[in-house]
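Colleagues,

Please find the record for the two-part complex below.
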Amino acid sequence: MALIVQKFGGTSVGDPEKIKNVARRVLKKQKEGCQMVVVLSAMSGETNRLTDFALQMQDIPDTREMDVLLSSGEQVTISLFAMAVKAFGDDCISFLGDQVKIITDSSHTKARIESIDTERIIENLEAGKIVVVAGFQGVDEQGNITTLGRGGSDTTAVALAAALKADACEIFTDVEGVYTTDPNICDKAKKIDRISYDEMLELASLGAKVLDIRSVTFAKQYNVPIHVRSTFTDTEGTWIVEEDKEMEGRIVSGVTYNKNEARITISGVPDQPGIAAKIFTPISDADIIVDMIIQNQDTGNGLTDMTFTVLRSDFQRTKQLLETIVKKTGATGGIHGSDTITKISIVGVGMRNHSGIASTMFSVLSREGINISMISTSEIKVSCIIEEKYTELAVRTLHDAFELDKDTVPEEETLT
Amino acid sequence: MALIVQKFGGTSVGDPEKIKNVARRVLKKQKEGCQMVVVLSAMSGETNRLTDFALQMQDIPDTREMDVLLSSGEQVTISLFAMAVKAFGDDCISFLGDQVKIITDSSHTKARIESIDTERIIENLEAGKIVVVAGFQGVDEQGNITTLGRGGSDTTAVALAAALKADACEIFTDVEGVYTTDPNICDKAKKIDRISYDEMLELASLGAKVLDIRSVTFAKQYNVPIHVRSTFTDTEGTWIVEEDKEMEGRIVSGVTYNKNEARITISGVPDQPGIAAKIFTPISDADIIVDMIIQNQDTGNGLTDMTFTVLRSDFQRTKQLLETIVKKTGATGGIHGSDTITKISIVGVGMRNHSGIASTMFSVLSREGINISMISTSEIKVSCIIEEKYTELAVRTLHDAFELDKDTVPEEETLT
């Protein structure tokens, strides 16, 4: 008998009627002969309502108490869900994080799951019950309630699927799956049927909208097949699974973009050993996260340029910090930068076996008159920094150039 | 150092501003040199909101899941309270029922406390923290969440006070204490300064409005002094304590009434052994609670009358049930009754040492032309059934007759 973990987010359980619909959906799957474990988030809006209360209490709410507060949200949805199942004549039992010993570390508001005791869940599944577990929450060794941070219910679902060795973890959301690119700016965007864990991780900025990215890391580690799909239709969504031959046949799986970064260049930096550390240690000490770093070859005069990107919200702060740093390094060319850039990326495991993908990307952008100011590559990704205003054009052009709207490989059997 | 348990109900913690006020009040007491344990209910209205949700799920909500649902309410108030204390610069830690092992039986929605583990509470008090505990909730031996029923937070507070050997348990509410009678119908009603556990139990119908009566039983058992007082003023309320000499000097402590009963008479019942069992066994089997029972002396013809009271909501059902029962007993006089009656009672430990109290009551009522249809007495109480329309007149007349508006004994030192 297949064991399926299904996770429904806040909009799927936003009111009593919606919770009943979720119960119907779960029961339908159970009737097909599956053992069902359900993970629920709090009702949509509830976390904001509670956070508002907290902010009326304390400017920076105590994190231990914040976790006690926020974890009440799923307590409401899981008990209502269990009642709904029972009203339909079936049996169901709800468990809070601490009741199935979802043990985490003690990092309140962003805890990490360390272990799960599946005994009580299995016992109840074997008794024919649907088991519903509160997402997002756990308990530390001392018995304090913890929460896993935004999107934490996805992590709960994947962790439970891993611990229970479930056949699949289905994440229900308000979109139909993961797309080749953002459908809002490219109407040729196509739902991806199957994608590897690594590609999904690289597509973070697309994926984060439908799926918490930490849960993908977790799924990869324990090889849990994830099925991202819509709460509102019965159509298949996107399966996130281990890489296979079929995927390698597809060179590029998706085009993604990130408007959340800013670029900073320090020019005329003395090309000496230790110079990078002198610049980046104080930045790191100020809790500023640096993404891409590029250092040009010394052009002959003993000077070099250093370019890097930071979060757009850290742009001004980073520039101010650099004023003093740069003086100490003896850089002569000053600090330049832009906070109207976009990082545009193509992702695909097929790149490993195909050459010329990056140069195709550069040519395509160049043909449209789009200048590339930085380039960074990984084994399965090429990212370029371009001016923000070209974002939509670049996405559409790359989507066309790599024929992402076409089925490049024959459809194989899906996992269900 | 005195250890005080303070309990605040739903109206006292009804919104973030009110929770801050409660925090200020608790801190003030702590600054006087007390160790503070605080018990909170859910915000007023929250239990109704959640119950409404549950009724949309299931006609008769599953009781285990109902407890999961309802216990989320206090989780919100205790965490917000802890944040408020911390915002004022002091330290505080919140605990749910299961975190301080408030172990109950498994009677969901009306569980009874079996034990409390005070170790974590004491540890945190000794570290100088205010400890706030969720009222109303516990956990059974299997780790299922339970709730103690309406008014359960009072019971939590008293049980904690007992387990911690606290110096006092203060119950904050929206009235100033327990009154000699209902101030709404008798403007001479006077706040009682001190009253014994037994009197309080007999004054149930007055007391239930300010204090859950099960908690008084508990307090009596463990000799926990309870102080019922107003959230909104600093004045002393009513102390509910062990009986002492001073109380005995007061003959009548309070006048109470109950409009919630109905009277039924079966006349012409054959006066045979076993007749009472024949009548009351089927009534009890139908879950109808009988309060007073009076059987008249056989008047010489081998027949007797049987009169008793039931809850007014059970009146019609009881009469229907009796139709068949009465035929079997061979009663000849038929069934009569009234659901417009009131049970009016005078209560006082002083009655033990004073004679003539009952007859004074009868005379007083008679002088006003109020007919008494049933009488029942205990060691410290006399109850009479009268017509409902005389309720207010009877209350005021008895209150005057026993001079409840006067200080009959000199005020002694209070316990604080």
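Residues 410-416 of chain B have pLDDT under 50 and may be disordered.

Comments are welcome before we finalize the supplementary table.
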